[in-house]
Amino acid sequence: MRGFLLSALAVCASVVAQTSVDSYVATESPIAKQGILNNIGPNGSKSQGAKAGVVIASPSTTNPDYLFTWTRDSSLVFKALIDQFISGADTTLLGQIQNFVTSEQILQQVSNPSGTVSTGGLGEPHYNIDETAFTAAWGRPQRDGPALRATAMIEYANWLIKNTSVSNVVSNLWPIIKLDLDYVAADWNQTTFDLWEEVSSSSFFTTAVQHRSLREGAALATTLGQTSVVSNYITQAGNILCFLQSYWNPTGGYITANTGGGRSGKDANTALASIHTFDPAAGCDATTFQPCSDKALSSLKVYVDAFRSIYTINSGIASNAAVATGRYPEDSYMGGNPWYLATAAVAEQLYDALIVWKAQGSLNVTSISLPFFQQFLPSVAVGTYASSTSTFTTLTAAVKTFADGFIATNAKYTPSGGGLAEQYSRSNGAPVSAVDLTWSYAATITAFEARAGFASPGWGAAGLTVPTTCQTSGGGGGTGTGGSGTVAVTFNVMATTFFGENIYITGSVDSLQDWSTDTALILNPANYPIWSITVNVPASSDIQYKYIRKVNGVFESWESDPNNEFTSPSGGSFIVNDVWR
Ligand SMILES: *[C@@H]1O[C@H](CO)[C@@H](O)[C@H](O)[C@H]1NC(C)=O
Ligand SMILES: *[C@@H]1O[C@H](CO)[C@@H](O)[C@H](O)[C@H]1NC(C)=O
Ligand SMILES: *[C@@H]1O[C@H](CO)[C@@H](O)[C@H](O)[C@H]1NC(C)=O
Ligand SMILES: *[C@@H]1O[C@H](CO)[C@@H](O)[C@H](O)[C@H]1NC(C)=O
């Protein structure tokens, strides 16, 4: 009887919570949307002199001064607007989107302390709102910006292909997207400041969004007939996916946010990466850390739990209920408080998970995700639970309640009027730091949309395989770069094959088997349709080669003439990207 009463009370409490979240969603949605539009130049009511299409981070000009435009924030904000435009939720946004494209095209060309457009300038984190360079000291470069901008523009490009023509996109949008993708492909393996602009190392969010951008970029390039870049994008995406795995901390059960920084590594970075690389078609795949993957759920629990005891406003809340969360527990910026966008990201990851479980009609509990699910059902065991089981019903209802709790927490600390600052006080929940943070509004809107079951278009995350050895962007890393007088050359060739058919290489030097077809070297299809092999060849030499096909080891055909040819560099490593002829 007691058990019955308690569960009846729990149901009752969750209904109350849901109702209050429903009403917050209803009142806050238009406020958040207007909050975004107010912060876009030239006509946004709070954008104070920003050029057309420029997104200001916040109208705050002192303590802190955020009257600048960040590539990351702007791209995430416009991604949310492009989602609304493409889904038909708001068809009035086309002019704003075009303004955004124009302003980013201008900003790409602005020389700045990170470099020029062709020497690293695309990694500059932020600009003045009149589209001039910000030249004071800053944590630069930040290499997530170009990737996020490419992702926003690729979504728009895919709509434009349907709505107008391939040639329109090739002429107008592709040159902008290609600059960003070429930057990502060339520089992903360099250190970067993280999305909080504090730690210079490698950063999970940055790596994850870089991976995404190259996958969808390769697909777009193929659609547009821009085939010369495709194999390099796919090769580098494979290398990035390999590197991405290294952030997982198996003993801690969480994704470590940064390779440097000397912190726990528990960070909103990882939940943000999961929601911004969500692809419903990839199910609960853990190699891309999908929102419902066992690794991302385990990581989410560890991250959320890191804030239970450090914020006064979280005290007295049950250990399996939602709390306010911040960037990372060691944070001290502006007092180190909860952030609206971090707390909303937790909810969004959970809503994304619910979308997939409902679509798949089942939910898996693995040894990795067991602690996450045990929060809601201590007796749950590792296994697969179909939607017809009571375990599925219990867990999905509990996850929904848990997710709504994060929205309810933000709601509780949203001041009357609905304005969203950057943070709210860890001790009393009052708004702290920059007012009207554009990203707070965008994060609120995307969480609400996920709650309503909306997922933006996927990006090709389904069915990816992780290369067996992680290569650096130069191609030779991890496997050595050869002895004296040689250079490690990675040969990538895009070739579709049928089962039993393989791609081999043979060429003009000993290490390429002196044109023998019998002893030609077989390439690795880990990034199919890209086949790869790294071979040490003589430095500073003319090298000629061809690919051949064999079926079950038996010679089938040569590539057409002429021979492929290049001059090897004097040292280091080198990549050639080919398409089978
Ligand atoms: C801004 O508002 C002015 C005045 O209404 C209008 O003429 C102009 O087209 C608007 N600019 C943009 C980029 O929307
Ligand atoms: C493209 O979209 C615009 C704006 O939504 C619409 O007016 C136009 O009819 C569309 N054109 C095509 C070819 O779909
Ligand atoms: C470059 O890639 C290699 C191979 O994955 C990795 O070990 C290394 O940490 C990466 N460095 C940076 C700065 O991304
Ligand atoms: C559950 O695991 C099975 C087997 O690994 C997999 O085929 C299925 O897609 C998974 N389902 C979900 C929802 O993760």
TrEMBL record:
<dbReference type="InterPro" id="IPR000165">
    <property type="entry name" value="Glucoamylase"/>
</dbReference>
<dbReference type="GO" id="GO:2001070">
    <property type="term" value="F:starch binding"/>
</dbReference>
<dbReference type="GO" id="GO:0000324">
    <property type="term" value="C:fungal-type vacuole"/>
</dbReference>
<feature type="active site" description="Proton acceptor">
    <location>
        <position position="194"/>
    </location>
</feature>
<protein>
    <recommendedName>
        <fullName>Glucoamylase</fullName>
        <ecNumber>3.2.1.3</ecNumber>
    </recommendedName>
</protein>
<dbReference type="Pfam" id="PF00686">
    <property type="entry name" value="CBM_20"/>
</dbReference>
<dbReference type="InterPro" id="IPR008928">
    <property type="entry name" value="6-hairpin_glycosidase_sf"/>
</dbReference>
<keyword id="KW-0732">Signal</keyword>
<comment type="similarity">
    <text>Belongs to the glycosyl hydrolase 15 family.</text>
</comment>
<keyword id="KW-0624">Polysaccharide degradation</keyword>
<keyword id="KW-0378">Hydrolase</keyword>
<dbReference type="InterPro" id="IPR008291">
    <property type="entry name" value="Glucoamylase_SBD"/>
</dbReference>
<dbReference type="GO" id="GO:0004339">
    <property type="term" value="F:glucan 1,4-alpha-glucosidase activity"/>
</dbReference>
<feature type="active site" description="Proton donor">
    <location>
        <position position="197"/>
    </location>
</feature>
<dbReference type="GO" id="GO:0000272">
    <property type="term" value="P:polysaccharide catabolic process"/>
</dbReference>
<dbReference type="InterPro" id="IPR002044">
    <property type="entry name" value="CBM20"/>
</dbReference>
<keyword id="KW-0326">Glycosidase</keyword>
<dbReference type="InterPro" id="IPR013783">
    <property type="entry name" value="Ig-like_fold"/>
</dbReference>
<feature type="signal peptide">
    <location>
        <begin position="1"/>
        <end position="17"/>
    </location>
</feature>
<feature type="binding site">
    <location>
        <position position="138"/>
    </location>
    <ligand>
        <name>substrate</name>
    </ligand>
</feature>
<feature type="domain" description="CBM20">
    <location>
        <begin position="481"/>
        <end position="581"/>
    </location>
</feature>
<dbReference type="Pfam" id="PF00723">
    <property type="entry name" value="Glyco_hydro_15"/>
</dbReference>
<dbReference type="InterPro" id="IPR011613">
    <property type="entry name" value="GH15-like"/>
</dbReference>
<dbReference type="InterPro" id="IPR012341">
    <property type="entry name" value="6hp_glycosidase-like_sf"/>
</dbReference>
<keyword id="KW-0325">Glycoprotein</keyword>
<keyword id="KW-0119">Carbohydrate metabolism</keyword>
<dbReference type="InterPro" id="IPR013784">
    <property type="entry name" value="Carb-bd-like_fold"/>
</dbReference>
